[in-house]
Design brief:
This protein has one helix at residues 16-28; strands at 13-14, 35-43, 55-59, 62-69, 73-78, 97-100, 116-122, 134-140, 143-149, 154-158, 165-168. The protein is mostly beta strands. Strands 1-5-4-3-2-6 form a six-stranded antiparallel β-sheet, covered by helices on one side.
Length: 172
């Protein structure tokens, strides 16, 4: 168990080639599956999303668990996290983390069929500390969700990707 999450044993990878080799075929194979649910961790006391912990997406029983860490590390897990188990080890904190099925970016996508999963690499035209970071993108027809690196945490974006992202093909 890591970060108090039952089943979360992240393997953080760096760079598009490493991530595409390790997870590309499984991400591509999600196409055609319906998003049936999701889970994020929120604090009980104020309802704030704790973006440092994984975003779990359930596609008809195949769960993908995405977690950015540090500036350029990304872990993608598969069917490992138990979102029914309590998040533990936070006795030192004044906040109580709990799994939630509440997020304004994710709720409208539940029930939708995934048309394509993609890996995007941030390649800005000018120097940028985040250059080379990788985002995971999920397309549901015209609607798109990206889980990007928000500088040491997950960040959720919808809509068209910034033009400085380079899309990398994923093959089953």
């Amino acid at each position: 168990m890591s970060r108090g999450i039952h089943g979360f044993e992240p393997t953080f990878l760096v760079g598009i080639e490493e991530l595409r080799r390790a997870h590309g075929p499984r991400l591509a194979a999600l196409a055609g599956r319906r998003l049936t649910g999701f889970a994020v961790v929120r604090f009980v006391e104020d309802g704030d999303w704790f973006a440092d912990l994984p975003v779990v997406l359930d596609f008809d029983g195949v769960r993908v668990e995405v977690c950015h860490w540090k500036l350029d590390e990304l872990s993608i897990g598969w069917n490992e996290i138990d979102t029914t188990a309590a998040v533990t080890g936070w006795e030192w904190s004044e906040f109580t983390p709990r799994w939630s099925g509440d997020h304004e970016c994710l709720e409208p996508l539940v029930g939708r069929v995934l048309t394509e999963a993609r890996l995007l690499e941030w390649r800005p035209s000018e120097y940028d500390l985040a250059a080379g970071t990788v985002a995971v993108e999920f397309a549901f027809g015209e609607d798109v969700l990206r889980i990007t690196n928000g500088l040491d945490e997950n960040f959720l974006e919808t809509g068209a990707a910034h033009p400085d992202y380079v899309r990398h093909e994923l093959i089953r």
